[in-house]
User: Fold this.
Amino acid sequence: MGHPLVSVIILNWNQKELTDECLRSMSKVSYPAFKIVVVDNGSIDGSLEYLRGRHPGITYLANRDNLGFSGGNNVGIEYAVAEGCDYVYLLNNDTEVAPDFLDSMVSAMESDPKIGIAGSTVFYFDPPDIVWFAGAHANWLRGDMVDPRVGKPLGTELPPLEDVDEVAGAGMLVRTRLIREIGMLDPTFFIYYEETDWCQRARKSGWRVVWVPESKVWHKVSMTFGELSPVMTYLMTRNRWLFMKKHCPRFPLFAVHYFLRGAERFCRFAIHGQPGLAKATYLGIRDAFLGRYGKGAMEKLRRKSA
Assistant:
């Protein structure tokens, strides 16, 4: 009996050197049945030519525009499913992987046909033993995903497989049968909370979402927007509302908390001399209330913070 086929989808947007490093890491992977699909999200830095010259044996798909994490990955997912893969693995381009990271993931999936999504342990690239994200559980009042392992070493004695509400979109394995049943990532989010939404849609349809401690990925964090940038603040503020509107069992209670928390953050940023973050918070709340999703005010905030 052969090994299930995995399509590893790597999304690139003007980060050819990081993607090159990720692909070099993938060249050491021990799992025998995988293909790589690089989706370029409308880069203008010559990424495709650069990567094709260094990694000619993989598939490249080119988008004319930046479709965000959700829309860009959906292009790769649609291609991979049409090609007949058994599983799709979404891997951030700003990561490097352990050689056996796929072996443990596929083994976990094959152990139970009701597991629809599995997540790797994602560590900081530096320091490499500290957890960036593993598996999280929902706080339905705040609209946050809580992972008690974040910022701590995992230790040498690994915990068992764990059912969770969310795994990291930076490293997640998804069963093709689940994708055919519930669909792909919701492009409305553009970026942030789309994998959280996907996990919740899977759980609502009766699938298990699990964290696989043995599968290890290292994340070069915040290469795209930076820690607590105006763009990230805007998108996280806006998309938290969208996610909770879709899934929160007591949404009116959350809505009160959301506006109070947003007002507190706006005032705190303004008082501490961070007008860019204050404005991003306001725009996030405004666009959430008005239903303005996709790129929204992202480009305006990026220009002002440049």
Notes: The domain at 6-219 is CATH 3.90.550.60 (Spore Coat Polysaccharide Biosynthesis Protein SpsA; Chain A).
